[in-house]
Amino acid sequence: MEFVQHSARETVEAVEGVHLTQLAVGEAMSVQHFHIEPGAVVPEHSHHHEQTGYVMSGSGVFTIDGEEYPTGPGDSYAIDSDLPHSLENPTEEPLSGIDVFSPPRANPDWQD
Question: Is 27 domain-assigned?
Answer without folding.
Answer: yes
